[in-house]
Amino acid sequence: MLEVDLHHSFGGFTLEARFQAPPGVTVLFGRSGSGKTTIVNAVAGLLTPDEGRIAAGEWVLLDTARGIRLKPHRRRLGYIFQEGRLFPHLTVRQNLGYGAWFAPKDAPREDLGRVVELLGVGHLLDRRPGALSGGEKQRVAIGRALLSSPRLILADEPLAALDEARKAEILPYFERLRDEVSVPILYVSHSASEVARLATTVVALDAGKVIRQGTASEILGDPSVLPAGAREAGAVLTATVAAHHPDGLTELSAGGTPLFLPHIAQPLGSQIRVRIAAHDVILARGRPENLSALNILRGTVKEIRSGEGPGAIVALDTPGGRVLARITRRSVAALGLAPGVTAHAVVKTVSVAPGDIGAGGGHA
Amino acid sequence: MDWLGPEEWRAVALSLQVSFWATLVSLPLGVFTAYALARWSFPGKQLLNGIVHLPLILPPVVTGYILLLTFGTRGPVGSLLNEIGIVFAFRWTGAALAAGVMAFPLMVRAIRLSIEAVDPKLEQASATLGAAPLWVFLTVTLPMALPGIVAGAILAFAKAMGEFGATITFVSNIPGQTRTIPSAIYAFLQVPGGEGSAMKLVLVSVTVAMSALLVSELIARRVAARVGGK
After folding, report:
1. A87 in the Ramachandran plot: left (φ > 0), alpha (ψ -120 to 50) or beta?
2. CA angle (A172, A46, B120) in 5-degree steps
3. Which domain range does residue A116 map to?
4. From A149, which residue of chain B is nearest by alpha-carbon distance?
5. B129, A99: Cβ pair inside 8 Å?
6. For tag attachment on chain B, is the N or C end more exposed, with fewer CB atoms within 10 Å?
7. Residue A146 and residue A6 in one domain
8. Residue in A207, A339, A353, A341 with CA at minimum distance from that of residue A279
9. Which domains does chain B have, with CATH numbers?
10. In this predicted model, what pLDDT tens digit does every residue of A134-164 receive, in sequence order?
11. Does A102 contact B230 at a Cβ distance shorter than 8 Å?
């Protein structure tokens, strides 16, 4: 387990971060300027913090108190940068093999063929990065990091420079990386969808401080922690594929509650994470009837958070899991919503974005 | 090329020899200096930059005289080197030294620009993949700056071919030893009837200089295309 404890001041900004990254994907989640990239660069050794300690057991990367500052090239990390940073003068094959050349001979190695197949870059091997699309570049960058025999993979918003279609193309590769490769991943993101789909652990950051650490469902389902702002609010449910219906719908089971979504290309019984955006949820006191929406979840109001504006976030505990709803304060008053009150969350099938549905990753 | 007489041939061959060695020996030092100026910050950086550029702005005769005072047989450096058998004064090696010194600023400028054009983020990426600083330089910085380095070397070679003032002041104008093309042209023009030989050497000079410029332009364009197409 990687333990990070950093203190760093620069240009009026103070970073005071302390967290643990267990195996799996640990997402550093926060809006831009919250210090996420600074943390990752400190872990990589590209930035030396004023004070701090970064270690995993006996393996100490940084310990300012003991004067240990491992050089970046001795840290054995696979860093996937936002802009890819492939070497333009080398072919894809040479880029992929670059890190392996410097790795210790006895280090555990990923097989080139397996990684090439995992990332689908076999047809690109003899090209140069200049001839690749944005998504292809990023896949090669993932492979390059993976093949350097890293003890830890760092990814700094690897999807932020891509358009929605390319994001949808790359995200499944990170899911496979999480589920098929044992190397822990430290992943920086400001996107709630990426957190919902990828995170084993979430470290929520705001203004250089860790405000909360927990699982994806804990962090995204807590209305008091909204590192990406109220607009991005939305809880994540864990469900299994129960049936594929002939009319194109996939029926999930979230703790026994049926959930109908547009077709999901996953076999029956496989585990799915679904993020339900809070602004897509309608609340009702009684069970609504004669309604086009297919998903109605009954639950108990747990918490209501009102801000300065007209909106409020209502947390509803249902048998399928926590659901957040973003409604107006006027509606909260009109429905008489308060902690302990029974309510129904209404979720339109088609309102769930494909980017918010992810496969695997264990319980969110 | 029968149209060149033996004396003219000797000048051309000597010029090529002098320029070749001047370029070859100064290239590693030029790359190192350019890298230091492009990537490091250290006390005295501006002073080093000034010294490197000095031969470009001083009168060549002054540079030649400083070389004579320093590397002459009785100069502080020259007398030391003399003891281990390295002599510059009035030898072709001295002509090469003068040519190398005069061409150095041009070489360093070209290489420095090409090193500065290499994105430090790529060097960081290389380090995170396990490359020690020397390997980062050899596998990323150097190959990416290579077109600029080649252009700098060609520029230096052309400049060395044309060096006159510092050479004649430092190592005089001895046929077969230090009489390079410019010195030979100067000598031919001093005697009646030498214009024909001088003109032939002028043609050789122009041809070499133009070819060098063309090649270096071509390479510069390739660099621009590569940086733009990244």
Report:
1. beta
2. 90
3. 2-214
4. B129
5. yes
6. N
7. yes
8. A353
9. 6-228 (1.10.3720.10)
10. 889 999 999 999 999 899 999 999 998 888 8
11. no
Which residues from chain A sit within 8 angstroms of residue B139, using beta carbons?
Answer: 98
Q: Mark residue A362 as left, alpha or beta (left: phi above 0; alpha: psi -120 to 50; beta: remaining).
A: left
Contacts of A168 (CB under 8 A, 6+ apart): A354, A355
pTM over 0.80: yes
Helix or strand or coil: residue A22? coil
Kindly report which listed range (A179-193, A349-363, B97-111) carries the lowest average pLDDT score.
A349-363
Using a CB-CB distance cutoff of 8 angstroms, which residues of chain B are in contact with residue A79?
A: 125, 128-129
| CA–centroid distance for B27 within its chain | 8
Domain count within chain A = 2
Strands A25-29 and A201-206: parallel
Q: Which residues of B touch A (CB under 8 A)?
A: 119, 121-122, 124-133, 135-136, 139-140, 143-144, 226, 229-230
What does the alpha-carbon distance between residue B92 and residue B95 come to, in Å, rounded to a whole number?
Answer: 5
Element (H, E) at A206: strand A201-206
Q: How confident is the model at residue B230 (pLDDT cuts 50, 70, 90)?
A: very low
Q: Is the dihedral of CA B196, B201, B206, B211 positive or negative?
A: positive
Determine phi and psi for A106, rounding to 5 degrees: -95, 5
Please state, in angstroms and rounded to a whole number, the distance separating the CA atoms of residues B67 and A259: 87
Tens-place pLDDT, residues A162-185: 888 888 888 888 888 888 888 899
Report the pLDDT value the prediction gives residue B229, as an integer from 0 to 100.
45
**A239 shares a domain with A179:** no
Beta strand segments in A278-356, E: 281-284, 295-306, 311-318, 321-328, 342-347
> Is B139 in Cβ contact with A98 (below 8 Å)?
yes
Distance between CA atoms of A151 and A149, rounded to whole angstroms? 7
CATH number for position A120: 3.40.50.300
